[in-house]
């Protein structure tokens, strides 16, 4: 990337897993009411941002991004242009994509959050934290969470975020089959009961605060498993495989397709990862992190 007026910025954008996800009903605005416990993990996309005289340009590397409409970063730039009408400068972006797409790991939302804080700094737009949160919420339900990351409980449509006592450090096995799952597709198959069973998020949050791994493991829950696993055998097979491994617990992340497992030791995580890889999954063994998107210094 060529040099502009300001020094380029490098932004790290982590993935997330859902330790718990309860779908509570349909909202008047058409979205679903959820209660979810989120955790950032150290599988990261990377943004390189450079000031341009005008306009917007996006270059992508790594995992191929399907072109079926504007990328969320393109939408974020359009939103920034609307909000910062006095800005006449542009930005060049290089996105290195490492987080699988359509995998329930929040990669696109994390990229959008990283882009918001990065462009705000790069171009000196002066958006305060509350304004950034409002912009993040307008872009997508998970985007506000990534502004800070760590361990958090999200309610509403997933954009009302309350940060929790950090999850104790643990190894995470991410097993992603060669299939993407559309969140819209998954929500379209959710059947809301007349009397929803309620959420176990408070009990899970309390177990996390106590560092009680037995209760954390038994509290892992995802309502999407009842939708995705019966429909997609390849995902169900990975879920069974990790469930039979020597792990603390395992679960579908978000609407899938990634299944994750929790392990106290790297050796336990690696053994489970090898079994998942042999079954055709792309695997990553990573740690949890208390950070969300972050600037990694000048490029």
Question: What would you note in describing this structure?
Answer:
- By secondary structure, the protein is of the alpha+beta class.
- Strands 1, 2, 3, 4, 5, 6, 8 and 12 form an eight-stranded mixed beta sheet that branches.
- It is 32% helix and 30% strand.
- It is built from ten helices and twelve strands.
- It has two domains: 9-163, Ribosomal Protein S5, domain 2, CATH 3.30.230; 171-287, 2-Layer Sandwich (Alpha-Beta Plaits).
Secondary structure elements and pairings:
Blueprint: E1 9-26, E2 32-52, E3 56-62, H1 72-83, E4 90-97, H2 107-122, H3 129-139, H4 143-146, E5 151-155, E6 160-163, E7 171-176, H5 183-188, H6 201-210, H7 213-219, E8 221-222, H8 225-231, H9 233-243, E9 249-252, E10 259-263, H10 266-278, E11 282-287, E12 294-298
Parallel strand pairs: 1-8, 3-4
Antiparallel strand pairs: 1-2, 1-12, 2-4, 2-5, 5-6, 7-10, 7-11, 9-10
Helix pairs in contact: 1-2, 2-3, 6-7, 8-9
């Amino acid at each position: 990337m060529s040099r502009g007026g300001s020094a380029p910025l490098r932004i790290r954008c982590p993935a997330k897993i859902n330790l718990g996800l309860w779908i509570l009903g349909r909202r008047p605005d058409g979205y679903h009411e959820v209660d979810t416990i989120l955790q950032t993990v150290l599988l990261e996309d990377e943004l390189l941002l450079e000031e341009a005289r005008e306009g917007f340009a996006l270059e992508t590397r790594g995992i191929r991004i399907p072109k079926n409409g504007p990328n969320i970063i393109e939408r974020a730039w359009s939103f920034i242009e609307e909000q910062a009408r006095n800005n006449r400068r542009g930005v060049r972006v290089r996105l290195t994509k490492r987080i699988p797409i359509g995998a329930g790991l929040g990669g696109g939302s994390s990229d959008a959050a990283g882009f918001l804080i990065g462009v705000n700094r790069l171009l000196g737009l002066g958006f305060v934290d509350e304004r950034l949160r409002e912009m993040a919420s307008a872009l997508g339900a998970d985007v506000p969470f990534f502004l800070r990351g760590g361990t958090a409980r999200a309610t509403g449509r997933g954009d009302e975020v309350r940060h929790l006592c950090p999850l104790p450090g643990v190894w995470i096995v991410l097993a992603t089959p060669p299939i993407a799952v559309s969140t819209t597709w998954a929500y379209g198959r959710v059947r809301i009961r007349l009397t929803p069973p309620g959420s176990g998020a408070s009990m899970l949050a309390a177990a996390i605060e106590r560092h009680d791994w037995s209760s954390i493991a038994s509290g892992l829950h995802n309502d999407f498993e009842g939708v995705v696993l019966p429909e997609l055998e390849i995902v169900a097979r990975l879920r069974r495989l990790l469930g039979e491994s020597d792990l603390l617990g395992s679960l579908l992340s978000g609407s899938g397709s990634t299944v994750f497992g929790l392990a106290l030791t790297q050796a336990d995580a690696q053994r489970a990862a090898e079994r998942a890889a042999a079954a055709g999954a792309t695997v990553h063994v990573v740690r949890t992190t208390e950070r969300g998107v972050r600037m990694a210094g000048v490029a």
